[in-house]
Amino acid sequence: MSPGLLINSAVAQSANAELARLQVRQDELQDEIQSLREQSLSLSQQMANTEPADGPEKAAYDEAIAAFEDASEQFEADPTPTNKSRLRNAEFKMHLAERKFRSSNSELRKLEAQQDEVESELIRVRRELDQVTRRIPELKKNIVAQREREKAEAARRARAEAQARQQAKQAQASAQSAPAQAPAPTQATPAPAQPLQTANANEQSASGPLELDKDFTLLTTREQVLTALANLQLRIGGDSLKIRSNKILNVRHFVDGKEADKNSHRFKGLGNYQYRANAVLQPGENRIRVSFSRWNIEMPDEFAGEELVILMDASDRNAPRIIAFPESMES
Known about the structure:
331 residues, coiled coil, Putative nucleic acid-binding Zn-ribbon protein
């Protein structure tokens, strides 16, 4: 085997070994994510069982939530600067009451700290999984390209060897049948040109919904949005009075693992355990909470900073599902 083929073979072996390692790591990370999700769910259930049902701090927190809901309704009905200021003030007081309420329960604080650690690890593991998942198809493509180069090189060498044997036979025949003369110069047959690599058509397929977390889907096209809204109407049906209690959407934005911003939004009850809110999410890590249900998402840059519609299906109280999409896609 020629030195060139030896080098190509070594490169191929290295790439195949790297691919096998990444595929094993991908499975490990998926298992880690499942385990972390189960830990987070268990902690949420423990917090729900730990939260006191009464007490002065709980009463003050419930009162602050009601005031925030009232201010939200006023701002939605009449979005004046005065009502916006009242809404922001009510939101601040609600966060303050929540902090006092939770700080009064040491067991609840402990569970929340544990859940913050789990969520931070979940974000880290998911980011590594995303990197591995992107790298695997790239590596497969490189391996296929390397194999094609090896085949082309082997074919070129085979043609060159066959041509050399043919020339040797011709030279021998000429020497036996004619006076010795200098052989005419010959030109090597050029190797066929290799086609340029083109993008896989499948890679250019239309963008589908983005699963940012389990039971948290970001829609990316107007067609997806219209389908989701039609399905929402089917779920609501005619029983719009079954469940109309309001819920609060809490969003915490993190930068480099540290909380950089926090805001809350009121869910409107649409009926039959369906809810709707509007929110603006920042790019990167966002931790979303509704009561004791949590989602940890990486908001893509192209959808960050714009008004999003957040639809929540809470028909399964233990596993509510969220669909989000840019409000501009609704009309």
